[in-house]
Specification:
- The protein is of the alpha+beta class.
- Helices cover about 15% and strands about 30% of the residues.
- It has a four-stranded antiparallel beta sheet.
- The protein is globular and about 30 Å long.
Length: about 80
């Protein structure tokens, strides 16, 4: 796996700051939450993976370049 550049990591951190609400679009993992699951970002690691507390209790990260989520701007965390 090739790691993303520092610039990419910083861009992802700015786009998904802690507290951002997201919805899962795609995740290739047998333990993945169901597509459409919503959650709250708590950080972005040095590999640009988005760390999320999913509403269903899962803690799997959205891996940069592999998985997909989208911002939900009109919702507030529970």
């Amino acid at each position: 796996m090739k790691f993303p550049s520092k610039e990419i990591v910083e861009r992802i951190r700015k786009e998904y700051p802690a507290g951002t609400r997201v919805q899962l679009i795609q995740m290739d993992d047998v333990q993945a939450p169901p597509i459409g699951t919503k959650g709250t970002v708590w950080g972005v690691d040095d590999t640009a993976s988005i760390m999320i507390h999913w509403d269903n209790g899962s803690g799997l990260h959205v891996v940069y370049g592999e998985d997909k989520c989208r911002r939900i701007s009109d919702e507030k965390p529970l």
